[in-house]
Amino acid sequence: MYKKGFFFEFMNRYLLTAVFFILNMFLIPNLFSQDLIQNIDARNTLSLNGRWNYIIDPYQMGYLDYRQQPFDESESGTGGFFDNRVQEEKDERLEYDFNQSPTLKVPADWNSQSEKLELYEGTIWYKRDFTVELLDSKRYFVHFGAVNYEAHVYLNGEKLGVHKGGFTPFQFEVTSKIKDGDNFLVVMVDNTRKKDAVPTVNTDWWNYGGITRDVNLVITPETFISDYKVQLAQHDPNILQGFVKFDGNNLPKTVKIKIPELQFEKDVELHSEALVSFEYPIKNVETWSPDYPKLYDVILSTTSNTIADKIGFRTIKTQGQDILLNNESIFLKGISIHDENPLAEGRLRSYGDMRMMLMWAKELGCNFVRLAHYTHNEKMLKLADELGLMVWAEIPVYWTISWENPETFELAEAQLSAGIKRDKNRASVIIWSVGNETPVKPARNEFMRKLVEKVRQLDSSRLVAAALEVEVEGNVAKVNDPLGQYLDLASFNEYAGWYWGNVEDMSEYEFSIAYDKPVVITEFGAGALQGFHGDKNTIWTEEHQAYLYENQIKMLEKIEGLRGMSPWILADFRSPRRQHPVYQNFWNRKGLISESGQKKKAFHVLKKYYSEKELD
Ligand code: GCB
């Protein structure tokens, strides 16, 4: 008996752990080869936010010459809006002048800053001067939280590079290019929608352009902690595991990992590898959950570099039709959210904006938010950690991407990887979604399967999902997408009573779901204009939306294995597709809260359901 028990224990605990450890050592360097600096908030930075001069350039004349050749690829490398003449202003024949041009706030979309730019899709040039006193033995990086969609970045007239993808961070090292004293950064931002981009030309949200998230000059030691992951082991919450990655040539011998509140302190030896994995037993961890969003100070340090983070520890997995948070079955009381401030009509810019949105979700009784349909601001995830909201994170693989184009796949994969890399230490993130309402067909199935595989390689400690669609036949909504077999959840959007069927008949509708997995309804909803009242059968009234929510709840409660929902959507949001002159005016009205912050009747219906909902 003893032997059997010992062997079992050994296999379970040490051998599996060892295998994981070894796999990590070999796999992680390749997987995380994109060397984004982790946790910018914990770094020494010079903020480059503020007012930037801008030039609207619909013909891209600052980028292309009259033969349509890019200036930055020409032999002289001059002539564009980025070059040194911008600074010197010597040539009076120049037909632009940054320094006398108006300014835009950064971070922020341009659309909400000038009426002229509200519907603008094209190129805008940004320029900002800054002064820096260079220090010896330091490295310098220009880091952008997000620029939508394509960014060409130039420092002092020299091109640093290009980034595509409107919601993910990127950086350029400028150690050898930055000058002691005055410098200037120029960014050409292009938010033109393109068929082969991610997302593609067709979405149901505003195509906000600009430098929408923070810009920082990050100053690091010559060798520094560039990345790290500190989490509980999936198979054993008494084990702390992860990795620390360095950038630079003079690697320290050890890195210290400290969690003072747990009296946890370990020196991890580096063995002259830039990346080191670790795994240690850990005791008395109070796990993170929506009821108790406990975060610990975690400090990683070497003799020359210290990084502090606040990290929550929890496990998440599925078992049959249950979702287990810290080994306990949970129900996801959720709501979907766009990265938009309905009151200010633009992207969420500050912690204050984001706190407003998440506090509304808390007021609704949520323990879960679906941050649709793209990577949200890093601050939003930090707040979700702090407020105790579980998160569904997503990428803009939305509707009809160019499934057959390998470059489109690369763009999707890059956005997926950047989001996972950035937010992997956030306890709140429990689900990585690979897309929304994508149409079943062979090329798409393969595209999506590869994305799922990518998530599993990068982060096997969270759930993988996608918002699938239903196929309606008579009174039955079928969920039978071949992608479902690779996912951890049976998660789908269904718009019974709005895009199909009607509200009165909802009690007769049924769902036929092909997988034995936890069911999460990622969207349902109805449009309603706040303040418009009538009987429950009058479309666009608050009463009709509330009626639909009541009947949806009754209908969904009958689904076996229902483990959560994130109805569409917390607040009304702007969309060029929504043209009704009375009820919409460019607003998608499915919000539970209006653009002036008023709660509609359906808000209270869902709130009541969540307050009474218990897991049976
Ligand atoms: C959906 C989409 C969402 C739309 C919503 C709607 O299925 O996923 O992005 O905004 O429907 O309102 O039609």
Task: Give the key terms.
30% strand, 19% helix, 616 residues, binds (2S,3S,4S,5R)-3,4,5-trihydroxy-6-oxo-oxane-2-carboxylic acid, TIM Barrel, alpha+beta, Jelly Rolls, disordered N terminus, six-stranded antiparallel β-sheet, Immunoglobulin-like
Structure description:
- 19% of the residues lie in helices and 30% in strands.
- The relative contact order is 0.10.
- Mean pLDDT is 93; it is low at 1-34.
- It is globular, with a radius of gyration of 25 Å.
- The protein folds into 3 domains: 6-221, Galactose-binding domain-like (Jelly Rolls, Sandwich), CATH 2.60.120.260; 224-313, Immunoglobulin-like (Sandwich); 318-612, Glycosidases (TIM Barrel, Alpha-Beta Barrel).
- α3 (351-363) links the parallel β23 (332-337) and β24 (368-371).
- The strands form 9 sheets. The chain has an 8-stranded parallel β-sheet with strand order 27-26-25-24-23-33-32-30. Strands 3-2-4-10-7-8 form a 6-stranded antiparallel β-sheet, with no helix packed on it. A 4-stranded antiparallel β-sheet has the order 1-12-5-9, with no helix packed on it.
- With 616 residues, the chain is of the alpha+beta class.
- It binds (2S,3S,4S,5R)-3,4,5-trihydroxy-6-oxo-oxane-2-carboxylic acid.
- Residues 204, 373, 436-437, 493, 523, 568, 588, 590 line the site of (2S,3S,4S,5R)-3,4,5-trihydroxy-6-oxo-oxane-2-carboxylic acid.
- (2S,3S,4S,5R)-3,4,5-trihydroxy-6-oxo-oxane-2-carboxylic acid is lined by residues 204, 373, 436-437, 493, 523, 568, 588, 590.
